[in-house]
Please model this.
Amino acid sequence: MQLENYWEIKYAGKITITGTKVLDNKQYYVFSNGTFDTYYRNENNKIYTLGAFGNEYLIYDLTASINEIWQYQIDGTIWNAQLQSKTDTITINNTKIPNCYRFYFDSPQMEDEENTVWLAPGIGFIKIKCMYCISNDQTLINAKINNQLIRFP
Model:
C-alpha cells in the first residue's frame, strides 16, 4: 500500500489511496472512490478494514489455507469470508494474470448479496463479481502501483 496507488475497475470506477489515518495507534490507508472512503491496513499479510462505527475486522487473509472460512461483523450484519484459491488466472484483454487470490463473501442473514474479489500479487484488486452490481465484468482497466502504470489495452 502506497499513497497515490490507484485501481480503475470497469463499471466500479477508480479507487485511489488518498492518505493515511491513525486510529487506536494503528495506521490505515484511506482508499477513496470519490463517494466514500474505506480504511485498510496490512499486518502480517492480513488485511483489516473498519466498519462505519469504527470496528475493525479481517477482510483478506493472505495467510489462510484454501477454503478456510472466518467471520466478521459489519455494523450488525454477520459475514463469512473464505479464501477459495491462490492460483486463479484472470485474463484481461488477452493478458493473463496468474496466481490470483479469490476471496468469497456471503452473509447468511441476507439473500443475493454474495460477492467475490480477486487480488493479484503485486497489483491488488484485479476483478470483482457481485450479485447486486451493475455488471459481473468488473475487471481492472489500469492501475498505478508504487509509481508504475499498469494498463490492459
